[in-house]
Amino acid sequence: MLQFELLAADPDSHARRGTLTLNHGVVQTPIFMPVGTYGTVKGVMPRSLHDMGAQIILGNTFHLWMRPGLDVMQSFGGLHGFEQWNKPILTDSGGFQVWSLGAMRKITEEGVHFASPVNGDKLFMSPEVSMQIQTVLNSDIVMQLDECTPYETNGHKTTEAEARKSMEMSLRWARRSQDEFHRLDNPNALFGIVQGGMFKHLRQESLERLVEMDFPGYAVGGVSVGEPKDEMLDIMAHTPHRLPAHKPRYLMGVGTPEDLVQGVAEGVDMFDCVMPTRNARNGTIFTRHGDLKIRNARHKADHQPLDPTCTCHACAGTEGVAWADGGRGGFSRAYLHHLDRCGEMLGPMLTTIHNLHYYLNLMREIREALDAGRFTEFRRRFAADRARGV
């Protein structure tokens, strides 16, 4: 089941505000979706995800197929029961992970033959297999199997002819995914994925042919795969707003806070990215006033929290009152610097909570600005705040 309702639109951009109703709940859009590759958002308890305002999270079809396997997943009634998350889940198709195996896989019209990265077993992924796995996972949003068109391979930039060949196969796989999804009588929602590399006319052709298939929602894939930032932004500006206005639009694997704000302006409703969690584990913190490197020596004795305006558990503790508003319940930069230097696991747990809270709060502020008709003003203030520096 999927119902998408538009609530507001920004007159100065393609930004829009909506609600997305799925089998496991309602999602307010625009939304950021934390990535839980192996059935967990690394270092974060489900309760913490609830507390920070996560409405929908991701699971990884490929990795969950490898481990723990479909028998185990089926015994729990799907991914929700397995990881104890009662809100919506989106699962990717496994296409990107198979593509990233490089020499360990062979792509044909039928599907992808590859060696398991876990134990070396010879395996086969096809549109039909992907739909079967995702049906067992019982994810609210299922993604078609596609071929992720690379920007370049071993220094060779993908040509237009190569991008077209890949895009056309993804379209055929979209139809096969849709046919199998319906054959399985999956009660959830299947999204098609626009491909076409960095070629706008191929993106347009992919988009139009997917729209003819009438998916409940659409994603823009094949971005943030090694291309220069300006080319990624060019595709972001071209594709999302051309997708059907009455259906949700998902930009896959993007990106920085600035990318999210720009993506919303281009008409995107849904985002996911490992950046907030991965960067947190590597000591890079996102704040209202720019990025902070917690490993820098200047934080060794700093009493401030990561972000004085933040109300996450790392910055405001159980009180939930920001430092800027008089709260003193959070952890200092000095403490988090110390945890990082000592390799203590609490450090990346707290920084991950903060980064995810920052992303989710950013999306909440965007929704509030759209509700109030102040998105243009919000964008100006956001850019000025981020440029200020910590």
TrEMBL record:
Species this protein is from: Paracidovorax anthurii
Reactions this protein catalyses: 7-aminomethyl-7-carbaguanine + guanosine(34) in tRNA = 7-aminomethyl-7-carbaguanosine(34) in tRNA + guanine
Pathway membership: tRNA modification; tRNA-queuosine biosynthesis
Residues the entry annotates as binding substrate: D92, S93, G94, G95, F96, D146, Q195, G222
Superkingdom of this protein's organism: Bacteria
Active site: D92, D272
Protein name: Queuine tRNA-ribosyltransferase
Binding site for Zn(2+): C310, C312, C315, H354
Cofactor(s) of this protein: Zn(2+)
tRNA-guanine(15) transglycosylase-like domain sequence ranges: 13-386
GO terms for biological process, alphabetical: tRNA queuosine(34) biosynthetic process
EC number: 2.4.2.29
NCBIfam families linked: Q_tRNA_tgt (TIGR00430), tgt_general (TIGR00449)
UniProt subunit comment: Homodimer. Within each dimer, one monomer is responsible for RNA recognition and catalysis, while the other monomer binds to the replacement base PreQ1.
Alphabetical UniProt keywords: Glycosyltransferase, Metal-binding, Queuosine biosynthesis, Transferase, tRNA processing, Zinc
